[in-house]
Amino acid sequence: MIDRIDLWTVVILLGIGSFFLRFVFLGVIGDRNLPEWVLRHLRYTAVAVLPALVAPLVLWPAANGGEVEPARLTAAIVTIAVGVLTKHTFAAIAAGALTLAAMLALLY
Amino acid sequence: MSSISKSAFWLGLRDGAPFALVVGPFAMLFGVVAADAGLNALEATAVSLAVIAGAAQFTAIGLLADHAPTFVALASALAVNLRMAMYSASLTPHLGAAPLWQRALAAYLTVDQSYALAMVTYPKHPDWGTPQKMGYFLGTVTAICPFWYLLTIVGALVGNRIPPEFALDFALPITFLAMVAPMLKTRAHLAAALVAILLSLLLAWMPYNLGLMVAAIAGMMAGARVEVMTGGAK
Questions:
Q1: Do A14 and B227 touch (CB under 8 A)?
Q2: I need a surface site. Which of A15, A47, A51, B160 has the fewest CB within 10 A?
Q3: Nearest CB to B47; choose among A11, A53, A80
């Protein structure tokens, strides 16, 4: 059982901290211009952060005790392939979800 | 509300709506995990209201349930959310000119999906000013965030009656991959993604998810470098 004081301490401080992280640039810099080299790096934020976040989850899913799991790995590969080829996020999600369901049904 | 474009808001709402389908299961999974860790529905919902970031919420509750020190749970979850500071910086050229209250609202509601949608859509509308960009952003979050709260409650109430065979844990990776894949338009984008993936795997051993930050920054540097080498942005 989680101690209630610990829980609420984390919830409140995490809420404040998360807001601060989201507000730090948007609120403080506002409409002042950023130098070109900074903007050049910021253009790649999304394509760097999101794949880095999911790569370990794809290769070593906690649901499989951190071991490579073929259904999830295949679903991830299909999602990327369909997304790159069609440029449609929802086509990619649908393909990935169907692949995952089919592979899970086949394998287990 | 006069300084927010209504038509852009509706466009954002429309573009964001399908994401409710994938955010929903993930929020539900959080509710289930929270219930498993002994949180009641009110407490689980408070976490979702305060944080609105799945990965950080899972980290915090997972560590607390594991009897990690409060400080460790907090620091780890904040480290997972450090990417929000990068999103904030990345949104600043687009939304920085909006009134303070709008920027504060947009900041509270910044989630991966709305950020990614904005990054895909803004370049398609070079004529958009701040009212349109802010309208669009708020539209996307309006379609997404209420489901995050609501399905957290559902998950916490349903508890662990959702069988693990549903593999709800994989809703997040599939969604993120599907959002990123269409963005890989240039060699610079590809380089950024590949470097970030490689380093995040090599640095997965680092504490507090710091490997993710190092990997992301290295990926951004790789993207910027290749952009200069191949001559100009997309």
A1: no
A2: B160
A3: A11
